[in-house]
Structures
1.
Amino acid sequence: MKFKINTVLLTLAFCISFFSLAQDSSLGNWLIYIGNKKVNDKWNIHHEVQYRNYNVIGDLEQLLLRTGLGYNITENNNLLLGYGYILSENYVGDTDDKVSVNEHRIFEQFTTKQKIGNVGINHRYRFEQRFVEDDFKMRFRYFLGVNIPLQNKEEGKNPLYASLYNEIFLNTETSIFDRNRVYGGLGYKFSTSLRMELGYMNQFFETSGRDQINLIAFVNF
């Protein structure tokens, strides 16, 4: 238990070192729902809603709606074809004026999971085709997530856990680096169908960054 807590603290300290790289940063919040419907042993339907705010108490930054149809190659390997709609409310320069930007997104992804002891590791590779107003863009994303049980109970019955991840975004155009996200949080597994996380994420670009408090609900049914 002590070793696991020390591992979490060291990882969070590592994340904080990334936060300090951002020249400009402000705190916002993301409210996230991630659902998964099992159709049968091979097929699943993914659905997701994210309500992102510029600050802790409101001021819409982005509304993201995403869905997809997945196929289990094996128990721990999933292919998914999906669609997303994203409404962004972007500030114009340093003014209080906003402009709305609509994006339709098609994406393909491969997810693979593994365990080292009780520690769960999740790799996700995603390729996106983005229709942003009149522009067409493509982007690759790689996500590495780690879930660490924090209670000494038998396998599969560790309700309290630490969640850590890093995700990098790469464009196919000249400016290849798009952004990077670093996250650390605590989660609680209420049942096999529901778990929730509260965490802190930094999203940084080349010269700026944003900090977000994330409240995430994962639902399987």
2.
Amino acid sequence: MMSMGDYPREPKRSHIPDDVKEYVMRRDEGQCQACGSRSNLQFDHVIPVAMGGSSEPENLQVLCATCNLRKGPGLST
């Protein structure tokens, strides 16, 4: 029988520092980079953390919740 420690774990979400969030929000002009919406904004990892992506500004973008969900399971962060 397997113990809890034997099951694979989800990759731990990396914390995005506040200064990085502020920088990315300013860089992306406070709007979704896919549709231009200014509501329900989220920070999205272009390369998901689960696939080795970092929380550096170069790997982050601002997306609205709708566009972030459109990326599909396993691709949105």
